[in-house]
Amino acid sequence: MDISLAEQNQLLEILYIIRECSKQLSNKGVKYWNNSYPDYQEISNDITQKRVLVLRVNRVAVGTVTVKPAAEGSKTSEILRLAIYPKFQQKGFARKLIEHAEAVAKSCGSEIIKGHIPCDDQALIQLLTDCGYQNKGNETPIIPDFLRINFEKRL
Question: Which domains does the chain have, with CATH numbers?
Answer without folding.
Answer: 2-154 (3.40.630.30)
